[in-house]
User: What shape does this take?
Amino acid sequence: MVLEKSLSSAINTKIMGSSGSEETIVLAHGYGGDQSVWDKIVPYLAEHYRVVVFDWPFSGAVNNKDLFDPSKYSSYDAFANDLIALLDELNLKSTVFVGHSMSGMIGCIASINRPDLFKTLILIGASPRYINTEDYEGGLEMSDITQIISAIESNYHNWAAYFASLAVDANDPLSVDKFVKCLRRMRPEVALALAKTVFYSDQRDVLDQVSTPCTIINTSSDIVAPNSVAFYMQKKIKGKSTVEIINTNGHFPQLTAHLELLDVLGKVLGLKFDHQDPDIVGVN
Assistant: This one.
């Protein structure tokens, strides 16, 4: 059947919330994650929007292991093409795109190629380049990246636990454990290839081509994407952009500070979310 061969089916796409809503919000996870990283905020968003979640081909949650081709996905362009293809398949336009980590820059690239698909970009912990230069503070030295790649090659299982403890607020051990499990579902050879794509990437030249309005969200302490990166992006992005800092630690506010993240999203979207747990929202 055609449906079984569709991109949306292959990457576990789900559409939740009110089918009567005219606006759609698309949530895209980052390295090592899957759509479950959004579980805490989806019910709130689904009260106001159609919410689309999916798993990137590298995710351990994707059944078809042939979907991730390391040579194809050696740059963010292939991911951006997938995002465009997914939105076209779902017949979506003018979406609110929320991209976490690497997905932030993927959304930026997609918005340049197809601005009709994006009403606004919300970039959480995004970075155009992770490696410091003389005039740019990305947060990591080349030696740090070399160590990361070496650690993944030598013992990915152990590295996953170590990286999760640094990337996720250590004061929230349940969230650390959740991300460890996500990381370990990703195959080591996929994790290695993708780490090289992500950590060696330099997308700074993309920013001055982004005309879609952007909100850049960072936490006050993020080892992966320091605040210097957020303000650099704001300065370089062509379109209107603002920076919002959430007063918490780590790279995953959607896991460790979801109510604070919802407050920021509400400010951006012109909504006020009730912090009482909403009803469970089913899949349409």
